[in-house]
Structures are given as structure tokens and as C-alpha cells.
Amino acid sequence: MDVVLNVEPRWVSPYVFACFVALTEKGIGFRSHELDANAGQTRAADYLARTLTGRVPTLEHGDFALAESSAIVEYLEHVFPEPPVLPREPRERARARQLLSWLRSDDLAALREARPTTTMFYDHVTAPLDGAAKLAADKLVSVSERFLLGQHHNLFGAWSIADSELAFMLHRLILNQQPLPARLRDYAVAQWQRPSVQQFVQKKRPTRK
């Protein structure tokens, strides 16, 4: 059955990243289709009818279309259970979901605004963070360190999508030359080298206008 991942044209979305990594880790053959929201392509009547919310990314699996990255990852985990991208043990899986929800929360909104993903893949920003963005970055560091406590390589023993998504968020700081505790930086840099992650990172992107 045909699998399509609708993505934004610059390939900088952390939500596209999550879906891309999940599909790649599971070895699911899929096609990517770029849709430009600024050009109104996500507001087309047929796209709205299929996706309900008209957002990107969207997974199309046969005649079923699903938006929102967290929902897409959950769907893939149920329909294509092997290999898993979430921990198998119920409490660890719950913790992974907790972290994934938190990374999308308002707690980190100021950091996402101060260090948008365009600063990761296009124009870096090296000025120090201040105000709310600094507080958000400090909280990201403290929460990350608590999740990593007692772990050596991955958050939950074996790799999960939570490792890649946390590394992506930490790279908002790393790629913009913001300081991080050494162990946290080493963890994020190691996760960044995972082949599925590098396939996304090395994507050919359009020249920024």
C-alpha cells in the first residue's frame, strides 16, 4: 500500500523530522511530497477533506490521511510495530510520550522562537539568549539531564524516537554555538549521527531567499 509523507518545502520542521525518522527506522518505503502552506497548497479543498486540519506533515497510507507528528508516530507504531520506535515497557513508553509532549509544549516556545529551525539549517545566530528564551533553554537542560540520569547512550536503554527528538531540540543550541553541559552535548551529538537522522540533516534544501 502506497505511503506518502507530505512535508514543508524547506525540510526544517521538527515535526517532519520526527515522522521522517520514524518511517526510516521502520524501513517503510515512502514517497515525500512537498506542500507550500504559504502558497495555499495546504488549504486546497481536497487536501482539507483528506486531512481534516490541513496541516503538514501528513501521512497518507492508502485512503487514510493523518496529520500531527505525534499521532503519525503512534499510528506507525501500531500498524508497523517492528522495529519499534517507542519503548516497549509501559512506564518507559509513558515517559517517552511525556517527553515528546513536553518538547512541543509552551514551556519551550520562547526557545523555539529565538532559535527557529531556520537557524539550524540556514543562518546561525550566535548572540547569547536572553529573557524568556534563556529561561526556556535552562529548563530544557535541567529536564534533559533528569531524563538522562543513570543512562549512558539512550534515554530508555534502547534507542527510541524520543532520543532523536530531544537531540533535535538540543541542536537548536549546539548549532548556534550555545553552551551545554559536556555530557548533554556528547549525548546530543552522538544521537545526531544516527543514520536516519543524518538522512534528514543531509537533505538537499532550497537556497534561502
Walk me through this protein's architecture.
The longest helix is centred in the C-terminal third of the chain and has 18 residues. The chain has a four-stranded mixed beta sheet with strand order 2-1-3-4, with helices on one face. The model has no long low-confidence stretch (mean pLDDT 96). The chain is built from ten helices and four strands; from the N terminus they run E-H-E-H-E-E-H-H-H-H-H-H-H-H. The chain has two domains: 82 residues, Glutaredoxin (3-Layer(aba) Sandwich); 105 residues, Glutathione S-transferase Yfyf (Class Pi), Chain A, domain 2, CATH 1.20.1050. The protein is globular and about 45 Å long. By secondary structure, it is α+β, with helices and mostly antiparallel strands.
State Rg: 17 Å
Task: Domain count, please report it.
Answer: 2
- Overall outline: globular
**Secondary-structure arrangement, i.e. CATH architecture of the largest domain:** Up-down Bundle
Sheet with most strands:
4 strands, mixed
Report the top-level CATH class of the largest domain: Mainly Alpha
The name of the CATH topology of the largest domain is Glutathione S-transferase Yfyf (Class Pi), Chain A, domain 2
The neighbouring-strand order within the major sheet is 2-1-3-4
Question: Helical proportion?
Answer: 40-55%
**Arithmetic mean of pLDDT:** 96
Contiguous runs where pLDDT drops below 50 for at least 5 residues: none
